[in-house]
Amino acid sequence: MSLQVGFGATVWARGKLHQELDGIGYYTQALAAHLQPAQVQCLPVVFGPAPTSLNKQPPFNQPLVTTSAYKWLALQSAITGLSFPVENSLKQKINLFHATDHHIPKLKGIPVLATIMDAIPLSNPEWGNQQLRQFKNALWKKSVEWADHVVTISDYSKQEIMTHFQVPEDKISVVYLGVDPKYGQRLDAVRLKTCLNKHNLQRPFFLCVGTLQPRKNIGRVLEAFKQLPANIQSEFDLVIVGRNGWGVEGLVNELQNQGPASHVKWLGAVSEEDKLCLLQAATSLVFPSLSEGFGLPLLEAFAAGTPVISSNTTSLAEIAGGSALSIDPEQTESVSHAMQTLAESTQLQSELVVLGRQRAAAFTWQTCADQTAAIYKQMAR
């Protein structure tokens, strides 16, 4: 008999509504899609309103269970110690609840598993959106106490969660994310050319992917690009993909004021298909993030056959596993030197492509789902 699992789908539903899944929404969708129905049945639960158009959509293929907005329920439980009101209706339907998206309910009568991607808002609050930051962090820390077990996505994140949430080591499991097989499927020349023409890209290019925010450190890549020898600057473009986030007004202003002949191009947010095209066409993905819980773009680039330049800090060295060209993300010269080295060596590019594809093959969503289902079974006993 399959386990009935309440599945946090709040961030997923919000992303589907706005046609832009973030990392947490993508994780929720991919995990649910790969859980075996014979073993696990997911009941999608959304805190707050959700359009009926999302009912019975993949990966859940059934109506969403909706309840009150999370922040008010969480605040009420933090003050009173009472369970979320939805507990009474869920008790008859599920064996446990998996909060995949940081919306962790207090459910005294139902085991709760919480996925915590990282502890960055606590370890480096200055990198995030400052609006009500102290209040949000305090409520988040309190909500993690309501979880019976925590799953996270790297050994680095596990250590951070132990430090900043004071969660005991035996209450945390590490389950790596997977990479979608589509990134390893080569696009044909016509589709690649159409995409590149759409974005006015005629030269080889370095690619940065990520929301513009301080932690992503994209300004450092821009400065590193300016330090490249003139012949490389004239031959290559620097292409930046990602929406404007917060805390980088100077960078945004500079990117918005590039002339039509500039070799620096900010494309903003692009479709998944265009992102795949850009990854497959890039000379290299440059990923200089100052901190990541995992770093999924690394694996996507590896699978796409794209050489990667990546930070040697936090979880990124762990996930890259020696398959990327490492940089010190706080040293512009380190970033620039790696870009120059890669631009000048087709042999190194080829070696990194082989290493990257081998590394990506070790990370699958099916493995992620199987390991997560094993945790469900342990908790539901």
Report on this model:
The strands form 2 sheets. The chain has a 7-stranded parallel beta sheet, with helices on both faces. A 6-stranded parallel beta sheet has the order 10-9-8-11-12-13, with helices on both faces. α9 (218-226) packs across α15 (332-343) and α13 packs across α16 (346-360). The model has no long low-confidence stretch (mean pLDDT 95). The chain folds into 2 domains: 3-177 and 364-380, Glycogen Phosphorylase B (Rossmann fold, 3-Layer(aba) Sandwich), CATH 3.40.50.2000; 181-360, Glycogen Phosphorylase B (Rossmann fold, 3-Layer(aba) Sandwich), CATH 3.40.50.2000. β11 (284-287), α13 and β12 (308-311) form a beta-alpha-beta unit. The two termini are 13 Å apart. The radius of gyration is 22 Å and the shape is globular. It has 17 helices and 13 strands. The chain has 381 residues and is of the alpha/beta class.
Features:
alpha/beta, 15% strand, Rossmann fold, 381 residues, single chain
Which helices and strands, and how do they pair?
Blueprint: E1 3-8, H1 10-17, H2 23-34, E2 40-47, E3 65-67, H3 70-80, H4 87-90, E4 96-99, E5 112-115, H5 120-123, H6 133-144, E6 149-152, H7 155-164, E7 172-174, H8 189-198, E8 205-209, H9 218-226, H10 230-235, E9 237-241, H11 249-256, E10 264-268, H12 272-281, E11 284-287, H13 296-304, E12 308-311, H14 316-320, E13 325-327, H15 332-343, H16 346-360, H17 365-380
Parallel strand pairs: 1-2, 1-4, 2-3, 4-5, 5-6, 6-7, 8-9, 8-11, 9-10, 11-12, 12-13
In short:
By secondary structure, the chain is α/β, with parallel strands linked by helices. It contains 17 helices and 13 strands.
